[in-house]
Structures are given as C-alpha cells and as structure tokens.
Amino acid sequence: MNLSEGQFLCKEGDSKDALYIVKDGLLKGSSTHTSKVNNYGPGSLIGEFSLIEGTPCDETIQVMEDAAIQEIPHVALKNILDEEPSWLRSILTFLTGRYHIAEEANQKNSRVMALPTLLYLLKSHLENNSNQKISLQEIIKEINILVNLGKEDIQELLSALEGLDVLKVHGDEIFVDSPRVIGLLYETIQYRATKKKVSPNILSMTEQMILTAIMKAVQESHEPLNNGVCVVTTDTIKATAKKAMHGMTVTMLTIQPLVQRGLIKPSIPVDFGDPTIPLESIGFFYCDFEKIMDMLELNRIFPQLDKKLV
Amino acid sequence: MKTVDSRQHIIPPNRIHVKAGFVVYTPDSDERSIVILNDGELAARNKDNHNEIVFTMHPGDLVGVAALLEREPFHHELVATKDSTITIVNEECMESELHRLPVWLLAVIKTLSAKTRKLKYAARQSNVQNTLKSLAEYCSHKPAKTPLSLTEMIQEYAWLTRIPSDSVQEDFKSLIRRHLLQLTKIDGRAICKIPDPFLLKIFIDYLTSVEKCETFAPYKLTLYQKKVLVFLSTMDAGVKKDGPGWLAFIKQNDPKADVTEWIHLVKLGWFKPVDEDNFAVDTNKVTYFLKALRYETNIRGVV
After folding, report:
1. Considering B121, B139, B164, which residue would you say is the last residue of a domain?
2. Total tally of structural domains belonging to chain B
3. Is the pLDDT of residue A199 over 70?
4. CB contacts < 8 Å between A and B, how many?
C-alpha cells in the first residue's frame, strides 16, 4: 500500500494483527507513554508483536515522507506456522516473551536507578522551600531532563515512596512530612553506591531498639525539650527498654555504637575500652530528639525500598 | 514458496527418550541446540552444585533459543528428573528450517532478537539524551556561590545519570567555558562555584528551544519589546491595573503601543492576572527575560 505524508498507518491502541514492512519513505512512531520518537525507514518492520500476539498498536505511526508499505496479515503467519514444525511457534513465543521480560526489567531498572535523582531533587526543593510542598509538574520535568525518565515511571516511583509514607501526592503537589528523612535517604543510598558498603546511618536491630526506648522514655516523661535536646537518665532507658522491648537489657556494649555515632551523648566522658566501667556510672544521656526520630524513620524505610521498587 | 527440492534439504530435529538422571546438556559442551521437552521433566541445575536447581522444565517448555540464535551461553546443566521425551534442534536443523521461511519471518525473528539485545544493553547505559542539559539541571540544584568539590560533583552526577565520567567532564568544561560555573583551585583541589543557578535554568530552556529548532523566546524580542522589558523591570510588583490601564501606562512611554502589543506582552508572561480584571508585572518572568538577554553570549556559548 502507498501512504502520503501526514497519513496515519495506525494509532496507539488500534487493533491490527498485521506486520508492516517499510519499502520506501519515512514514518514516525510516538507513544503517550514515552517522549521517545521512533523513525521507520526502508527495511523497518512495524507491528511484530501485533502479528504474533495480536496485541494493539503500541505507537501512533504517522507518515513523514510518502511511503510504500507491504502488509503481512496474521493469516500469512498462521499458514506458515501450521505447516512448519511446532517448535517454530515455540521459538516465536519464546522470543516475544523474552523481549517483554527484558522490557519490564529495563523499566524497573530505570525506576530504581532514578530513585536517587528523585531524592536529590526533592532534597534540593525542600532546602529552598520551607512549606514542604513541591510542584509535581516541576519534579516530573526536572527528572525528565536529568535522567530522561517518563512521566508514568516517575509517578510509579512517587507512589512507591507514598506507600512507604515518605511523601504524599495531592493533585499537583508533593507533600513531605519529614524533609530531613529525604536527605538522609539520599545520603544513605549514595554511600552504599559509592563506597560499596552499608552506610553508618543504618542501625542494627539492637541500636534501633535502644533509640526507640529513648524516644518512648522522652514521650512518656512529658518533659519539654531544650532546643530540641532531650535528657534521659540511664535508669529510665534501662527500665523502658526492659518494659517496651521484650525484656531487653541495655549494657555498655549495646549502647556504645550509638555514642560512637554521635546519636546520643553520655553525661560524663566514658572510656568504652574499659570493660569494668558499669553503665550505671553514667547518670544520663542527652540527644537531639528529632535526629533520633529521623534515624528511626530512615531505618524503617530503607530496608523496604528495594522490595517496593523491584 | 516451498519446492520439493527445498524439502529434501530439511534436517529433521532429533527426538529422543531419556531416563531419569540423564544429563541432556552440559555447559562444557561446544554444541548449541534448542531442547524442547515433549514429555517428562527436566531440571536446569548449577553445574558445580548439583543440589542447586535453577528452574524446572515441564512439557512444552524449551531452552537454548538465545544460545542458538544469539550465541548467548547457557550456563546450567540440564538433567532429566523423570523419564522424558525431548526434541533437540541443533544448528544444522535450525539453519535448514530457517532457510525455508519467508524473508519477512526471518526479519521478524532477527528484529525480536535485536530489540531484546538492545534493551539488555540499554539497561547498563544512561538514558540521557542531552547530557549538557542534564548536567545544567543537576548543577541548578546546588547552592549558589558555595565552594563545591568538582571531583565529588562529577562522581555524584555520574552516579545519578550513569553517564561516563569523561563525557561528564566535557560537559562541565562546556558550562565553565560559558561562565555558568566557576572553577578555582583551593589547596590543590578543584573547586566549583555556581554563580547563579537561575542562569542555568534559563540555559536549560534555551537548549530545549534549540532541540525543538525554535528561537528562544527572549531572543525573539523586538527592540521596542526590549525597551518595555527594561521599563517593567523598574516597576513595583504590587502595582495592579486592568488591561486598558496597562496599555495606557505603556503608551505614556511609547505612543505607538496598541492592543496587539499588549496581548503579546501578556503571552510572553510579563503580566500575571491578580484578580478578575487586574494584572500585575510578573517580576520573576521579567527578571528571566532580562537575564537571558544580559547573558546571551554565555547562554549561546560564544563567550
């Protein structure tokens, strides 16, 4: 068949179970799912999947330069497959299946790879914006420029983060409850990727339990914070941990990593290398309450990220 | 079209019956073939650890297509876990069969393989099409006039985008040449400063216009419009007037101004509606146009 410039061969979503071979001319394929445009010149095939699987056209194909096209209807394929050994059909099914698997893996991979970019942009917007609201359209545009990720993939990425309560998307705006967690997440992922080891922000279960005990103790005490800093006695930490954390015993050894990370500070200088010093010798610990909340939030989200995205 | 002669050249596939435990394929073998399970059960296992079953094949399943068509190695050992009937399509058999197919079907097979290969390759590559624009976007989110380590920026950007670092370095040079980034050395370390992130945003829009083969809006302004722009830049953002009011105001400076010009200025975004009838000067937009004009040589890269 011959088509003139401007005519459409097919529109996205059309049911056409045929293959088209471009003999001459030029056609352009575009889809609502991606900004990428495909050009089809002489020798190009259009509609392999429609021919084999009967799936609707995945692109709108428009003629850019007058074109001569050969149409191979599905029945031609059917006739050949009926005559040929059955394994030929299996090979075609295998090849299309393998393509779809690679396509899906590629999409997932693009989303996973774009997560740090999304966090980078959110972090940057939140640093320059005190009301914790970011324009969705702006983020979509910026990610697209930075890593060329499509709108649908960005929205999937955002809904994965929404599922983890990292942010909320309302209409055209993204709301972030805890901007510092976005920064911590970005930092942690970057550390893992560049240093090839676990970030110091990732805490062990015991460390998380102690911090949770401290947080509970502060909340139960109803004592006002002093410039965001809270003070908790060693006895209270031990008692809260025992009560709330399934009889957990806090010792010098278990509390040491938190002190070394600077998350909590003892009231007196302590030599953790000396095993004879009892924990009780430290009267109290003080810490930045919000920092502890953020660290616990980070440690809640981080292990779930891979599962949510992959 | 098939002929009697072409049929004579067909090498039929090998259909065999194997007992449970028979090793159908081993990765050490040089022979490539498609194995189709007709009946029974096969398992693909780790050749070094026979207890590690990678997947199990059921009647109708096949393996080895990629090995045969694309020379992709098949790493697992294939063993019959039950008495089975299998069909083996080796290279000669496949070749003889493919020769008989119409060219378009061969092209379909080839395209499917090529597209999959391309996708697999793309997964390891950057998706970024305009790397300079992407780098400008990255830099526009850094704080203004703050010393930043160039090495760390290159590392971070290359990690975010998967663009090879030599290409990233070239794009950094391009931005530095345009004075959109400043490079200094402190204690032997290359330090980068971003004089004005807003300029980078303008540069991104300029590159977008270039991509679309359009003239960048600020560079399409007439001399008269440029004069109005400078005049508007001196105005307070709080001043509100309706359309005719603004037109009359502009006419004070240029009696030739008419409604068409007013509509054009609104389209350029220099005025924003503030309530039902009134407009105010959009100072952000005016600043955007002014900066684009002031730094035209930097943006165009003809510094």
Report:
1. B121
2. 3
3. yes
4. 115
A19 close to B (CB below 8 A):
yes
Q: How far is CA A38 from the centre of its chain?
A: 27
> Rounded to whole angstroms, what are the CA distances from B272 to B205, B211, B283?
20, 28, 9
Report the pLDDT value the prediction gives residue A75, as an integer from 0 to 100. 86
User: Is A300 within a domain?
Assistant: no
Q: Which of A287, A112, A168 is nearest to A217 (CA)?
A: A287
More confidently predicted of A120 and A127: A120
Whether residue B232 contacts residue B249, with contact meaning beta carbons closer than 8 Å, is answered with no
> Could you tell me the residue range of the domain that residue A185 belongs to?
103-201
Comparing B132 with B231, the larger pLDDT belongs to B132
pTM for the model stands at: 0.80
A69: domain CATH number is: 2.60.120.10
What is the mean predicted confidence (pLDDT) over B133-137? 97
Length of chain B equals: 303
Q: What is the pLDDT of residue B3?
A: 45
Are the beta carbons of A142 and B97 separated by less than 8 Å?
A: no
Asked if B91 contacts B64 with a C-beta cutoff of 8 angstroms, the reply is: no
What size, in residues, is chain A?
Answer: 310
SS3 A72: strand
Could you tell me if A187 and A233 lie in one domain?
no
The rounded distance, in Å, linking the Cα atoms of A263 and A272 is 16
- Among chain A residues, the shortest Cα distance to B1 is held by A80
Q: What is the pLDDT of residue B303?
A: 63
- Please tell me if residue A109 touches chain B, with a CB cutoff of 8 Å: yes
Residues A77 and A22 in one domain: yes
Q: Which domain holds residue B227?
A: 217-296
Q: Tell me which residues of chain A, numbers 20 to 49, contact chain B at a CB-CB cutoff of 8 Å.
A: 21, 45, 48
Q: Of B83, B101, B121, which residue sits at a domain end? A: B121
What residue type is assigned to position A45 of the chain? L
What local confidence, expressed as pLDDT, does residue B204 receive?
Answer: 97
Domain assignment of residue A132, yes or no = yes
Two tokens, residue A58: 């995945």
Q: Is A303 on the interface with B (CB under 8 A)?
A: no
Q: Give domain status of residue B126, yes or no.
A: no
Residue B7 has pLDDT above 60, yes or no: no
B272 and B250 within one domain: yes
Handedness of CA A220, A223, A229, A233 (dihedral sign): negative
- Which chain A residue has the Cα nearest residue B86? A87
Q: What is the mean pLDDT of residues A21-40?
A: 86
Domain boundary among A30, A53, A83: A83
State the amino acid at position A145 in one-letter form: I
pLDDT of residue A37: 85
- Number of domains present in the structure of chain A: 3
Q: Using 50, 70 and 90 to split pLDDT, how confident is the model at B2?
A: very low
Looking at mean pLDDT, say which of A26-30, A116-120, A124-128, A273-277 comes out highest: A116-120
pLDDT band at B91 (very low <50, low <70, confident <90, very high): confident
Residues A190 and A243 in one domain: no
Do B182 and B239 share a structural domain? Answer: no
Residues A185 and A233 grouped into a single domain? no
